[in-house]
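Ticket #4471: structure output looks truncated?

Reporter: J.K.
Steps to reproduce: submitted the chain below (71 residues) through the standard prediction queue, then opened the result file.
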Amino acid sequence: MIELGKKYKLKKIKGLATSDNEYYKVIGFYNLDTVICENTYGERFVFMKEFLIDPQKPDEIYSDFMLERKE
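Returned output as attached by the reporter:
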């Protein structure tokens, strides 16, 4: 469960190498599935809840999000 005031990492996308290990603090909720977050530099972001790693499911580090390349 994602909670207000707590810090979370973002899930990774399979096949996409990234070194983002930043934590985002939840500062608000928007609708039922969207959170407003802030990083350590004070920048604000909007994410779908499903993209944050849920502490109750720490092994689910990958998102179901799929990227396709079109040539």
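Triage note (M.O.): checked the attachment and the full token line is present. The chain has a mean pLDDT of 88.
Status: closed, working as intended.
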